[in-house]
């Protein structure tokens, strides 16, 4: 029985080897053929859809505190107690936006004092201008009187010289009138110098400076 089983096994191995050899020969013959067959494939239908927006999923959110790389200090132009804050930390602001409100009581007092000082400076300057105008008028009148006095003194002197030629006056009288003419000329020159000094003086400069400071 054992020999019969071994014989059957050997015969199976031979049959398998023969079949393998035949398969190799057939495959070689097919590959060495002069013509090759073309296999046509039938087209397959493709399903298409219109392009449209579609949410893929819920957006990812993350809570964090963002800090600026550059920070600037905002300096108020006036001191005081903050009574109202209009902008919170992190809010966007633009140039000219009011960030907070300061108690204005002290500022109102300072402004009122400045208004009083300004009004006082204006009145002082106006009075100085009026005084200068009045001085100009008085000095101009003084020049006019000095001119008239000199003209009268010259007329009297000329008349007295004519009388002297006629024997109606003395040399002493002529000398006196000549001195009067010289005095009148000196008075006129003095009045003219005063008028010129008044007009060319810069006496209003200090008052104008005070007005500018108050403004």
From TrEMBL:
Its main location: other. Residues 1-28 form the signal peptide. GO terms for cellular component: cell envelope. It is found in: Cell envelope. Residues 111-201 form a coiled coil. It comes from the Bacteria. Keywords: Coiled coil, Signal. InterPro entries: UPF0194_transport. This is Uncharacterized protein.
